Amino acid sequence: MAEEAPSAPSKPASAEEVDYMNMTIHEPTHPPQKETYTQRRIRKKREAEEKQYSPINPPGRPSIATALSNTSKGFKMLAKLGYTPGSALGAPGNKNAMLEPIGVELKEDRSGIGLLNEKKRKFREEVEVKERAEKAEEVGFRERVAREREHKRIEGLLASAMRVLEGLEENADEAQEPRRKKKKVNVLYRGLVRQRQEDERERRARYDLHQSLSRNAAYEKEDDDDRLALGTEEEDVEEADDELHAFESLEPEERVQRLIDELREKWWYCFWCKCRYENEAMDGCPGKSEDDHD
Question: Where are the beta strands (DSSP E) in 210-285?
Fold first, then answer.
């Protein structure tokens, strides 16, 4: 019997012979994290939305918007009582009878039943109040602008009538005497003269400040204007004038009318025609008021 040759010893597997493609790599295991309050609330809300159903039309029940079928028990009971499809329930001949059931609205919030109507009512009232306020403000703004425009027009007429009367009295024969004091000036345009002198005094004071004039009381070359500007001459500008104050306290329309009457009665001059007539009758003048000259 022949002897078998001894088998070669097996070699250990080298690194190149390892099958990496079939190796399984296990992910490291982590302990489960505890669910936070926010995560739990979001999860429950999502689950509730998924399971939510209307209590009016639960699953497995027909909708109230669907008419009863002829095979339902409810329809058969109504038919025995005399009901026919398309007719109303109740006594026959009732014009106000309802043909459809009352609709049901699902209330999803926790507010009171009449809260929504109350909110709508308050909102409508606020809108109405706001609209009325805007309308009143618009009307008030237009009226205010109209009053301001009319006031400026009357002030312009007043100043113009004052200048006309002053010019007529200065050009008259009896006005050729030396200039009288302001208190003797006609009160109808005395305020215009006083304002003009005050403006002149301010102008001279600014000129004096600009030219750096000396304010020495011994200044020998001072003329009337210098004394007026330097304040060395006593003026009646600051004195009280009760007559002028009483005239200026009148309404602008009344002051204008007094000036117009003075021009017509004393100088035969029509302020609206802008001309002086030859006689007291003032033939050719349409009238005394502004409307007569339109």
Answer: 269-270, 275-276
Question: Which pLDDT tens digit goes with each residue over 82-124?
Answer: 888 878 877 777 778 888 777 777 777 777 777 778 888 899 9
Residue with tokens 């999502």: 46
Instruction: Name the nearest CA neighbour of 255 among 178, 157, 174, 184.
Output: 157
pTM of full prediction above 0.70 = no
Distances (CA, A) of 178 to 9, 174, 276: 156, 10, 26
The residue among 253, 244, 271 whose CA lies nearest residue 165 is 271
* 128's tokens: 């109405």
- Give the C-alpha separation, 249 to 155, whole Å: 14
Q: Which two tokens stand for residue 257?
A: 């009318």
pLDDT in tens, 259-278: 999 999 988 999 999 898 98
